[in-house]
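Practice problem: predict the structure.
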Amino acid sequence: MVHPMVHMMAFATMNIHAIAWMQVAPISSHAHHTHIASCHGNNFFRWSVALRASNVPDVTNPFPNLYGKTLVSIQECIDAHLQQKHRDQQSSSAHPNNVPRLQFIDASWYHRPDHVTDRFRNPSAEFRSGPRLPNSHRVDIDALAATHELFPRDNPKNLPHMMPPADLFALAMDAYGICQYNTSHGGTFADHVVIYARRGAVFAPRTWFLFVAMGHDPKRVHWMQGSLEDWIESGGEVDCRSLEEDHVDGVPHAEGYEDCFDRGILNVSKLYRSRCGRGADVRYRTGVSRAANICDKHEVLRAVNENLSLSSNTVIIDTRGSGYTQKGHMPSAIHLPYRRLVSPSNPLVLLPKEELHDLFVSRGIRYQDPNLKIILSCGSGVSVCHAFLALTILGREITEENTKIYDGSWMEWGREEEEDLPRVLPGDMR
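Answer:
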């Protein structure tokens, strides 16, 4: 079965009225009237020249500088923002003329204390206090997940940030005002989603994978190369208002979902309990019935046993850092630390393709072979997304069956209760 993102097609040129059959949830008007910090004027000037050079804007592909690119530069994102800003100034509608929007997603997430303060940073508090990219949304992978609280049957072991059910993801997209749906002409209408993070938050690819696995058009899911701070240093506009005051409405959300936001942060638990299964008219279409390219411990165990019997065409890649040797690993797992896949000077920038290629090939991983099955594992299903992203950039022919992420990862495999799962422990490595 071919992976869903292979089937997601580019927009064909069509009359804009042909896709107006579906009413898109309007975004609160404050989304377009935020107080923005000033930036260098040369960015707007350069984009204005390009705008005047185009007689008729392409309403089906309003961001050609982003379309089809997984990795996008800060300057490309700044240019796209200025296009969106100009369009917003021309219309009070959330999706004027049913034109896809640019949606920034703050994916900041920290797994260790700050190296300076030795304290854990709070990404939601940082989002509230600002600065933020203009009209951005905050997605918390610990909240938008199959939590034990909401889904005890799906997550009986209370594992962290497990991939969410498709209906919960769709409901959250509706609340944010992020659109994707099928058109009457057989195409797909989808907003452009740009994932970004603050400096020090290195796991933004996990949120990129979340959107891809949930079937959002992969040609419109992008990872910004660089941090929020890099954006500011490049002259990009930011929203500096604090969201701590109850009367401040500083982030966009769909009308009718105001009660599900707490000072700019989506309360996923409240959203699910108040909307899911209660006749909510969910507009967003995930494109999948469940998260794609995910496997469980049983599939990994089969691969381990086949590898031990030398009868397998499967490789298991472990992307943890020191945990691989300090905590143990699966038999036959190949160690490829996620930190090796990004720039040493900026972990929010992926290495060039040539260097990524060498990292896989030097470990005997024939990633170009679509018949080779690759299973990715890490500590808790987060850093593996660096490897999935790298394989995507390298042009691997990814299908639903040949490239998978073990969602539970070592958090499940390394549990003492999992006595049936073979492990190579630190004492065994000597």
